[in-house]
Amino acid sequence: MSCAAVAGGCVPQAGSIVVFDLEFTAWPGSMARGWTGPGEYREVVQIGAVRAQFGSDLEVLDRFDQLVQPRVNPVLSEYLTELTGITQAAVDHTGVDFPNALAAFAGFCGDGVPIASNGTDLGVLQENCRLCRCALPLAVERFVNVRPLLSRAAGWRTISSCDLPKAFPDVPQLPPHNALADALMIVHALAHLMRRQPGVRINDLIGCDMGLKAAAAI
Q1: Angle at which helices 98-109 and 121-132 pack, to 10 degrees?
Q2: Tens digit of pLDDT for each residue in 1-55?
Q3: Cα separation of 53 and 62, whole Å?
Q4: CA 209, 164, 98 angle in degrees (round to 5)?
Q5: Is 107 helix (H, G, I), strand (E, B) or coil?
Q6: Looking at the DSSP assignment, which residues form a beta bridge with residue 145?
Q7: How would residue 212 be classed by pLDDT, with cut points 50, 70 and 90?
Q8: Is the pTM of this model over 0.85?
Q9: Helix or strand holding residue 126 (H, E)
Q10: Among 3.30.1330.10, 3.20.20.80, 3.80.10.10, 3.30.420.10, what is the CATH number of 16-208?
Q11: 3-state class of 136 per DSSP?
């Protein structure tokens, strides 16, 4: 299968990519029960993203970091604040509502380049679009879930972004559970894999190897 076929014909030849990560509302035990408790939703509270160019070496071109004000559960849990460091005051003062944050993220992504995440973050965006009754302004064909690729390379069953430095020694240890920091660690992990395969293009690495889109669960 060609890379163009895998990504719906949108993967460029230049080797640029947007990598993003999300932080969203959580409570003690919410992950284990799949956010099925009363009133529990995975409402986005932070979108972090990096635009990177992979040539002879990694070049970070731009960064995006936006706090988001949840609608259904506007008061953050103490659990989430302890996990992420995101405070209620920060969300109240610098956060925006999800449709505006999503529009800004779409503008950051621009046209054509693939949008990668370590997990099914696309699904969380879609859940929030349904909650806020807004459309996703980015084609789903652009999204790629690189978790199977990174997990396989690390020899792990599944690997989270905060564990990437344990598996790939040249990935910097950045603050865990911060969307921008997680996006940066994913970028460095992809760069590590590219250094293992001199001459490979980023679209070959995430497209042809994967043969799936971010919506596919693992």
Answers
A1: 140
A2: 223 322 333 333 347 899 999 999 999 999 999 999 999 999 999 999 999 998 7
A3: 10
A4: 85
A5: helix
A6: 117
A7: very low
A8: yes
A9: helix 121-132
A10: 3.30.420.10
A11: coil
